[in-house]
Amino acid sequence: MQKLALSFLTATSLAVAGVANAHPSRPLPSAIGYEPKDEDERGLWLQMDEFERNLKQSKLLIRDPELNQYVHSVLCNTVGSDRCNAARIYIIRTPYFNASMAPNGVMMVWSGLLLRMRNEAELASVLGHEFGHFEKQHSLQSFRDIRAKSDAAAWLSLVPGAGMFASFSLLGSALRFNREMEREADLISLDYLAESGYDPMAASNIWEQLRAEMDAQAKARKQRSMKDVGNSLWSTHPSTKERMEYLREAAEEMGSEGKRKGEAEFRAAMQKWWPKLVDDQIKLNDFGSTEFLLGQLASDGWTGRLLFARGELYRARAKKDDMTKAVGFYRQAAAKSDAPAETWRGLGVALMRLGKQADGRAALRKYLQKKPDASDRAMIGLMAREK
Amino acid sequence: MAALTDLRRLFTHCLLALLASFVLATNAAVANSLVYAGSERSAVQEGFAFPAGKQPKITIMRPEIFVGEQSSGGLARVNADWTKAGKENLLFELQQRLQKAGFSTSVMPELSGENETITAEYRALFKIVVNSAIENDLWPADGLPTKKGEFDWSLGPGIAKLSEIGAGEFALFFYSHDSFPLPGRRALELVGIAKGFDAPEQPSVGYAGLVDLRNGKLVWLNVNLRIDGDVRKPEGARERARQLLNDFPGIN
């Protein structure tokens, strides 16, 4: 999470670059049949095509056709069905907040980002931001900018004394250019949202939410919140505070009232994946963030699955009252119809840790009854003293 | 290593890392090994000999090739045309050289679905094994104690699957990476040297290895951190192929 502030939507970070959009007559990269034009662009595409080839084989890809179809359809709703097909979306199973865009149309969305979205409009704003990088050819622009500035810096570095400072200022200027492109992509995304009828306030809300998560994380770790750390000349992206503010201002101008948020659709599409993504998040050992995210997911009430997850979180931390609290959450979960079988496994283990061996074993046996083909049957059976 | 092996590293959060990542598709381990002394080393599995009495069949796996140029500031740019020419030239010249030495050769065709997954996995595994062999065997600065003295590396017998999906008895994997300095870079190097600064050129790097698909053994490996031959041209590619196949068993 500390990295969030810096890394959000680093997408372009892969292969950054871009030309100063000065060719209105040039076809956009999203046009059907677009081919890379000059040597810089063709070189970047070649590298990214090779990268995509490997990406397709990755074990980290979420291949679920329904989820992929859903994310694709949100992109199409956002940028239009004529252009959205130029982007190929890959959902990567990794519990951090990021998305990215390569110049050849490869868009990567991390599962940790999906876990942090609350509605379709928020997802649309992220996809719109990435698509904005793509259409504006930011990777190509950035590549050229870095090359020009690093060339100059290399020569300047030969000048004793002042040359070094001048080189640093060029590096700073390359980073400033990157921040400008991020801002541009943010604002392009707002236009997409407005055109497609999604609530433009969603974009600002993401940052507000993320900053609140950083506060929650810091509190649990008894550290200073990262939300305003690391904003400097050396940042690749505008600060979260800045983004939250300029996006809110622009959205207010556009009008947010009555615009589509798509909360129900988003929930329906994510239903199947939430338990897995929550489980990934719990394993990060990031108590504050996880507790915060669970609370957010439970905004409509605590389901059996969410209570189970909360029990798992407390049991994993295992500080002084955590086992007792975990038992409480597992018991609440067990009373709900959607509690997963693992609720009784967690309950059993937590009870045994509290010294309640008989109750614990009974819960473990209940787990095995509910899930006869459990992959950990041998171990849990042993703990439960099953025959 | 291959981009995929560490997705998170791909997203390193600052432009400095970005710049570094642009130093072409430089294989990290090979780049690191630039610090090792001596620029070319090879090894053959002890006691290895091709089966007698028949012509061994060698299949060349989809190689990793990038040909590009280096700007004054050291930023590398891949050139799509050069890369395409380099790939064609090298595949041709490697086969020529192997055929002259009496081997039967083929190039692994483009595959799809499950078969492509299997070959992609073995290409990735090959890179990992080669990097280990470089660090622990060819340039054993502080190598694994059990790997001292004997060239003994394997990709595992499961690789026999490649034979089932079209490869011969042996698979040749190779890597070739060129970054030609632009005139500005050359000038910078000269001025820098004159002034006592260091603006290192980025030499061409190549390696090749042969795997016995019957048992997975890496039977031969040659790594050259300063390889010659301009692969954009047929005669240059011929020289590159000759150097890549240095000490190949059965070729003098």
Q: Secondary-structure map with pairings?
A:
The complex is a heterodimer of chains A (387) and B (252).
Chain A: H1 4-7, H2 39-55, H3 65-79, E1 88-92, E2 99-101, E3 106-110, H4 111-116, H5 120-135, H6 138-156, H7 162-196, H8 201-221, H9 240-254, H10 263-270, H11 274-282, H12 287-297, H13 304-317, H14 322-334, H15 342-353, H16 357-370, H17 377-383
Parallel strand pairs in A: 1-3
Antiparallel strand pairs in A: 2-3
Helix pairs in contact in A: 3-5, 5-7, 5-8, 6-7, 7-9, 8-9, 8-12, 11-13, 12-13, 13-14, 13-15, 14-15, 15-16, 16-17
Chain B: H1 7-10, H2 15-22, H3 28-32, E1 40-44, E2 57-60, E3 64-70, E4 76-78, H4 80-100, E5 104-107, H5 113-138, H6 161-164, E6 170-181, H7 183-195, E7 205-212, E8 218-224, H8 234-244
Parallel strand pairs in B: 2-5, 2-6, 3-6
Antiparallel strand pairs in B: 1-8, 3-4, 6-7, 7-8
Helix pairs in contact in B: 4-8
Tell me the structural class of chain B.
Answer: alpha/beta
Low-confidence stretches of chain A: 1-24
Largest binding interface between chains = A-B, 47 and 43 residues
Cα(first) to Cα(last) distance of chain A is 45 Å
Q: Quickly count the domains of chain A.
A: 2
Percentage of β-strand residues of chain A: under 5%
User: How many H/I helical runs of chain A?
Assistant: 17
Largest sheet of chain A: 3 strands, mixed
Neighbour order of strands in the largest sheet of chain A: 1-3-2
